[in-house]
């Protein structure tokens, strides 16, 4: 079976009813009526939903597993969760490089999914081993008494990072491959692609909601082995469904003699450096290049277009397209950097938020307590409720005022999400202050495993604000980093988006570690004391709220300066700011 997103020398002329620069699974020109679009996107969304079910099945309750069966402290467990989560978000840069330069997206997805299954299988095995599944370790009040064998701990963490390796090839390629099923040169399909990003995230939130409610309950009340095993089975099923759609997919063409995008990018920097001392009057440049030469941003790269007058020593090294692609990538740097604060905030929803909720009254009915990790389902529920409103009500309404196909620009959407995330931190700080006052009122300051007489539903606003912020910022970032990178680097673009949350997790881990050491000395209680009744995570929330606000202001400054890459290319894209 020839998959042309790997290589193809086919040069057959494309007919009007075929898709530009795409072939089918046999490397033949692909017809719009029989391929791509939503009929193919459903298969891709299915495998992503299965992967997200597995991912959230680990992440959402990982801190409880580390502080429970593995007996780690709150600060250490939070650091380990953030490091693993950060690795999961950074490794896709490697997977995207492999996909865009060598294997292609389809084969990378299949290979990565197999690795993912192996990691989930060994993770399940580590949880089923005797010392981690004893009755003592299933009782949350006895977590600190569990003493797992060192070999089991090593197997557990090794399994986690095998999952991360599988995720590195899966995550950046699946969404890019799904978006590739919509022809960007067709105005109607291009609009569908914008909607695809919304419903893609909607599907993810459906499975995360189910994970938080079902898998977290199984893990806390039945068996950790079963709680990891079910997601493993789901990702196997998801891979099989993805393979069923093979004949319907559109595969991008990459010719055997075509330079990889990374080589072209490197040549631009080399040529610009080589010509750095040559004056413009001594240059030869094509007439069509004058438009890009008139742009002031990253003007030093323009010299990559020049060769000395009368000299054929180097010949023409870089095209206008090459220089524009490099400039497009450099424009992403300030947007990427200013969104790191958003990655830090999101890291709290699966760590500190969970520990905060574990101390509160979580009773739903007599004899049933909501698992603390299941509180994250509020995020998914808020997205499930709000996303259809955004896509079907807000966007059409905004179109009337802005005239833009997606209602607001991608950067406006991201900025709105950053504002909402700052508000979530302010809300979380106020709720934690209320919780500490309740602790003081009932004299529970020194009580470690006691339920605070304060309903866990007080946490709903902060979780909900995180969820709504994801509709704006998370989805906006996904579309932005897909749309604003060169076509051949779209897997890399989406991995750059993921790396925001990877670095955000690492920065969160660094902050927690540094603050814990700074505030926990000289007999003082740390902000992250194991007994949260003695801690001050409200101070941490206020700090994050301030950092997020500063990040938002810097983001708005760079947004005003940003020049959209596709402003002259596609009629269906947002061209304003």
TrEMBL record:
Belongs to the major facilitator superfamily. Proton-dependent oligopeptide transporter (POT/PTR) (TC 2.A.17) family. This is Protein NRT1/ PTR FAMILY 5.10-like. InterPro entries: MFS_trans_sf, NRT1/PTR, POT_fam, PTR2_symporter_CS. The lineage of its organism: Eukaryota, Viridiplantae, Streptophyta, Embryophyta, Tracheophyta. Its main location: membrane. The chain crosses the membrane at residues 53-71, 83-103, 110-129, 149-166, 199-218, 224-245, 370-390, 410-431, 494-515, 539-558. Pfam families: PTR2 (PF00854). GO terms for cellular component: plant-type vacuole membrane.
């Amino acid at each position: 079976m020839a998959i042309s997103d790997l290589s193809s020398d086919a040069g057959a002329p494309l007919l009007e009813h075929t898709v530009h620069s795409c072939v089918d699974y046999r490397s033949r020109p692909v017809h719009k009526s029989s391929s791509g679009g939503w009929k193919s996107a459903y298969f891709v969304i299915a495998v992503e939903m299965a992967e997200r079910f597995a991912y959230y099945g680990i992440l959402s309750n990982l801190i409880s597993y580390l502080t429970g069966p593995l007996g780690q402290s709150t600060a250490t467990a939070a650091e380990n969760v953030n490091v693993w989560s950060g690795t999961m978000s950074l490794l896709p840069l490697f997977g995207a490089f492999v996909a865009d330069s060598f294997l292609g997206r389809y084969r990378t997805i299949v290979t990565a999914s197999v690795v993912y299954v192996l990691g989930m299988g060994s993770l399940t095995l580590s949880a089923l081993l005797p010392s981690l599944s004893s009755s003592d370790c299933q009782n949350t009040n006895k977590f600190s008494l569990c003493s797992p064998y060192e070999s089991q701990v090593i197997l557990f963490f090794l399994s986690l990072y095998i999952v991360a390796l599988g995720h590195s090839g899966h995550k950046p390629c699946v969404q890019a491959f799904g978006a590739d099923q919509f022809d960007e040169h067709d105005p109607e399909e291009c609009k569908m692609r914008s909607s695809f990003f919304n419903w893609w995230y909607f599907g993810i939130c459906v499975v995360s909601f189910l994970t938080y409610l079902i898998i977290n309950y199984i893990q806390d009340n039945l068996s950790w082995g079963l709680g990891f095993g079910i997601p493993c089975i789901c990702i196997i099923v998801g891979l099989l469904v993805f393979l069923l759609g093979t004949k319907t997919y559109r595969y991008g063409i990459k010719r055997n003699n075509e330079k990889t995008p990374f080589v072209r990018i490197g040549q631009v920097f080399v040529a610009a450096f080589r010509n750095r001392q040559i004056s413009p009057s001594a240059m030869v440049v094509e007439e069509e290049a004058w438009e890009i030469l008139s742009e002031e941003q990253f003007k030093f790269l323009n010299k990559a277009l020049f060769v000395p007058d009368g000299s054929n020593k180097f010949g023409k090294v870089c095209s206008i397209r090459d220089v524009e692609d490099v400039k497009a990538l450099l424009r992403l740097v300030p947007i990427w950097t200013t969104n790191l604060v958003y990655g830090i905030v999101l890291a709290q929803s699966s760590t500190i938020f969970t520990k905060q909720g574990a101390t509160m009254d979580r009773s739903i009915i007599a004899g049933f307590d909501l698992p603390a990790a299941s509180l994250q389902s509020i995020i998914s529920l808020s997205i499930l409720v709000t996303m259809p409103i955004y896509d079907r009500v807000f966007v059409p309404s905004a179109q009337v005022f802005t005239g833009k196909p997606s209602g607001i620009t991608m950067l406006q959407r991201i900025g709105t999400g950053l504002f909402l995330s700052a508000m979530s931190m302010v809300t979380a700080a106020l709720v934690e202050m209320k919780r500490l006052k309740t602790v003081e009122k009932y004299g529970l300051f020194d009580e470690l495993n006691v339920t605070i007489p304060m309903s866990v539903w007080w946490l709903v606003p902060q979780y909900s604000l995180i969820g709504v912020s994801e509709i704006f910022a998370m989805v906006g970032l996904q579309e932005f980093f897909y749309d604003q990178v060169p076509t051949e680097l779209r897997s890399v673009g989406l991995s750059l988006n993921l790396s925001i949350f990877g670095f955000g997790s690492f920065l969160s881990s660094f902050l927690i570690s540094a603050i814990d050491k700074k505030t926990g000395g000289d007999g003082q209680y740390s902000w992250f004391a194991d007994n949260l009744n003695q801690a001050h995570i409200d101070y941490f929330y206020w700090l994050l709220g301030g950092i997020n606000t500063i990040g938002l202001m810097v983001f708005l400054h760079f947004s005003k300066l940003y020049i959209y890459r596709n402003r002259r290319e596609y009629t269906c894209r947002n061209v304003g700011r």
